[in-house]
Write a structure and sequence with these properties.
280 residues; alpha/beta; seven-stranded mixed sheet
Length: 280
């Protein structure tokens, strides 16, 4: 991974993760608001529902050794550890996130089964065929080489194991290439959230076939998750959130001010929430 990008991602999450937890809780990902995006629910419940809906969609009923790639402060890792009584390993570029996830595991009495490491997802420190579930919830967008990232996920997956990835995408370009205005919109998002670039869901599916995963399935859940950004925007306009932003520094403030970029990206059909799953 490019050293400068690595540092940018690390610094962004080192600075912003404490605020996110303080204001929005332990889950640093979208919520699920029903297939048509109209269900009204509390934001944290929507985020838990997203995890459950993804597991249901991928037909994952059990797991014993789970890797969470881009684990944040352990939201998904610890939820999955508890749900499946499984061993979980989370990796992140942020030492602050890894330390906080470790603390949370201890608080939840899951520290004997859960561990969190600072590691590069494109060069993971694990042996081949280690995990029966590799889970990547909104981390693929940060990867500068999408193919290498998925090859690493595939490498550490046990034969018969399941790979699940949910990630930010842009619209498919089969019918029309991205316009200059769409490209500018994406560049603005990339700059604020430390992303190298995103690709379309069909491009991810093509990579999955190259690995080669079996039983490949894809889905576009953009409509189901799009309301999340307006919920976050509404909840950010509180004295505690504003004070936390001021404490967290300019990069975090920029990220908060850019929440509308994601909301508008969904509205115009440019930003997509793509899912891929398959077996080794």
């Amino acid at each position: 991974m490019n050293t400068t990008l690595y540092q940018q991602i690390q610094q962004f999450y080192d600075a912003s993760s404490g605020l996110w937890e303080e204001v929005w809780g332990e889950h640093m990902h979208h919520g699920f608001y029903g297939v048509d995006g109209t269900q009204k629910k509390e934001r944290r419940q929507a985020q838990i529902d997203l995890i459950e809906e993804i597991l249901h969609w991928a037909d994952v009923k059990t797991a014993t050794n789970i890797l969470d790639v881009g684990c944040g402060i352990g939201g998904s890792s610890l939820y999955l550890a508890e749900k499946f009584h499984a061993r979980t390993t989370g990796i992140t570029l942020s030492p602050v996130q890894a330390a906080r996830a470790t603390e949370r595991a201890q608080e939840m009495l899951l520290h004997l089964k859960s561990k969190f490491l600072v590691a590069n997802a494109q060069a993971m420190p694990f042996a081949d065929n280690t995990f029966d579930l590799v889970w990547s919830l909104e981390s693929g967008e940060h990867m500068p080489d999408k193919t290498q990232f998925l090859q690493e996920c595939y490498r550490v997956l046990k034969p018969g194991g399941t790979l699940i990835m949910a990630t930010w995408c842009h619209r498919a370009t089969d019918d029309a290439p991205l316009t200059a205005d769409e490209q500018k919109h994406l560049q603005d998002i990339y700059r604020v959230y430390c992303l190298p670039y995103v690709i379309s869901l069909p491009e991810y599916e093509a990579i999955a076939h190259q690995l080669p995963l079996k039983n490949i399935r894809t889905a576009d859940w953009s409509v189901a998750v799009a309301p999340f950004w307006n919920v976050v925007i509404d909840s950010a306009i509180t004295p505690s959130a504003i004070f936390g932003l001021l404490r967290s520094g300019w990069n975090t403030i920029q990220g908060a001010l850019a929440l509308g970029l994601m909301s508008r990206g969904y509205e115009r059909g440019l930003i997509k929430f793509g899912l891929v799953c398959g077996n080794k």
